Amino acid sequence: MALLRVIIKRNSLTVCGDIDLEIRLRPIGFVRSKFTKDRGDARKIISEIVLFEELGEALTGIEGYSHLLVLFWMDKIRRGGRRIREMHPWGKEELPLVGVFATRAPLRPNPIGLAPVELVERCDNILRVRGLDAWDGTPVIDIKPYDHWDRIDGIRVPEWWTKTKPKIRK
Known about the structure:
CATH class of the domain at 25-75 and 111-147: Mainly Beta
Order of helices and strands: EEEEEEEEEEH
Largest sheet: 6 strands, antiparallel, barrel
Shape: globular
CATH topology of the domain at 25-75 and 111-147: Elongation Factor Tu (Ef-tu), domain 3
Strand order of the largest sheet: 3-4-9-8-5-10
């Protein structure tokens, strides 16, 4: 087993040798949703994020935001799917072979999902949101407010993406 050796200098971080680092995450809650692979457009479905009760006060003030970023653990992805490094987007052979980091596919080394959602309402430790593409029971690992800092105008995407995904959220 290789070790992580870190040398910290004033404003820099130097990593020497191989990195063998284990990160442990604890969910902050879970998703209640009717969204499935075969059912519906996640952008229209209202789901609930149920935070563990002891974290309820961590939501104080969140009602001031119209949108949130939700990070979740795609626990239904089998370990074999995490070994995939290249793929044809959406499983379409006519599209170019690209690395998983050039896709939004759930098959990735760390199955972390990210969804910008609309906050519909908060009731104690439960957030009702629109646009969450996570399945019922999915562990939620973090929630962040979406604000002007996150907005990026004039983004660039590959030509294959533009041709295959003409319906873009506006």
